[in-house]
Amino acid sequence: RAASAATAAAFDFPELAAGIDEHLHVAEGYAAQPLLRWGDPLFADAPAFDPRRQNAAAQERQFGYNNDFVGFIPLDAAGQRGLLVVNHEYTNAELMFPGLNAVDRKGVIAALSPDQVAVEMAAHGGSVVEIVREAEGWRPVVGSLYTRRITATTPIDLTGPAAGHPRLVTEADPSGRRVLGMINNCSGGVTPWGTWLSGEENINYYFAGALPDAHPEAGNAKAMGMGSLQYAWSRFHPRFDLAQVPNEANRFGWVVEIDPFDPASAPKKRTALGRFKHEGAAGARALDGRYVVYLGDDERFQHVYRFVSDGRVQPERGGNADLLDSGTLSVARFAPDGTGRWLPLVHGRDKLNAENGFASQADVLIETRRAAKLMGATPMDRPEDIEANPRTGRVYVMLTNNGKRTAAQEEPANPRGPNAFGHVIEIAPDGTDHGAETFRWEVLVRCGDPSKPEVRASFSALTTENGWFGMPDNCAFDGRGRLWIATDGNNRRATGRADGIWAVETEGPRRGTARHFLRVPVGAEMCGPCFTPDDETFFVAVQHPGEPDEEGALGSYEMPSTRWPDFSPDLPPRPSVVAVTRKGGGRIA
Ligand code: FEO
Ligand code: CA
Ligand code: CA
Ligand code: CA
């Protein structure tokens, strides 16, 4: 081909046709192999998946539900063996259990039995799975010494400045340092020292009970969205009832650090990284070697955060055991002129004092959202994943949408009200230093259909009718620093296409050009994109396949919108991690 270097596309896979049906589709020349499905046995003694007899003891030994974040940690130099670390964000009871026949969420909550709730709790959390690449493809090593399930009942330490604070103490845990379980773990990150960071997101769905206005935790509960119950757990476990155990909710909403090399180690909720609806926790190194974690708070009008450790990353794994327990959490202000600043959330500085109800750094961290608003952070359109390009040092923020932003609330960093399709912001840290206090930013792309002027999308003119997308959510960079975006919210009505993966050019004259690579079955969203270090395998997570293709409607076990990936009348649809490779081998192009 005659294209010059300046105009050459970074991507040259044949573009996939956008659309929506029961199947997963990937660009021609690529293969997509379901690698881990809900219910797959992980331990040698794990029973085979039997959805009509599912129970908590089996589920604790099997792959969990609704795989979201996926991280790959190589175990050999060639990258043919590694640990896959996977978040299990939530459960869809109506798709998991036969015969619920409930028409709405309240009906599901009322119908669930204690045993079914125990299955749900065991299907939450995360999995560590050793995988190997063989001639036929990747396979899980059932019974590997690394195998681990973390659930909603696993003992987890609370560490850092808020650990042990009276607001984290309950009758069951007078120390305020040990909580049972992690829940709604959405996206995450893998650290250079080989641990897994996992963000607890919509914790409000699990807590019943209202607090009286005069209760000291009432404002905090409201700020976290309590009062929108989606789960039955509080019917059988009083700790999920705010009226009975008001402090229990303060023990959720953190970033959890897990050592996948030591299955006996207690995971750690790192309170220094703040408490809010955590999406991801991808990181990068500051020029001086401190570790930086970028953090999104996924709710309308919430914020973009950054944590910078006090210490530097050490070459030995053990040297980083407590690195994330001390450092500075900051929140972003995006000025209209394209500059920006990280505002430190440090007790005693500016308004973060006793007069405003912050007696200590623990208070600042437990009520991070209130602290951020007091400091003048920019309210954003649902910040999801944030990832740094390892090649350029520029940072990309997925802003998924915001139907509640009004035209009067339009401003340069959130330029559409309402924002139905989301946008991507590119941040250039000053001095290409992730530790710098200031940055420049611009909108990389406003998402949505470019053929509709009223949408005000801004994909490049080279983007085809298959190449545009809405609702960016997760993202990943491959080894060449190319950006791949996963979406959540495309469907027949919203965009006439399924969620999936789009590759997006960030450099040169093709900047802002998107190209369609993969799409998920109806009802699913696309999560977890992650490359092996050789770029030969692209892991993607298909979440909640089989939901109805309309907002708010409930699916059912008996009549799911798809039975992917098994397509057996005896099996429900199953959330699964899929390994994508190039037919005949080679890098994903
Ligand atoms: Fe769990 Fe923000 O998606
Ligand atoms: Ca999700
Ligand atoms: Ca997400
Ligand atoms: Ca989402």
Automatic annotation (TrEMBL):
<dbReference type="InterPro" id="IPR006311">
    <property type="entry name" value="TAT_signal"/>
</dbReference>
<feature type="region of interest" description="Disordered">
    <location>
        <begin position="560"/>
        <end position="589"/>
    </location>
</feature>
<dbReference type="Pfam" id="PF05787">
    <property type="entry name" value="PhoX"/>
</dbReference>
<dbReference type="InterPro" id="IPR008557">
    <property type="entry name" value="PhoX"/>
</dbReference>
<protein>
    <submittedName>
        <fullName>PhoX family protein</fullName>
    </submittedName>
</protein>
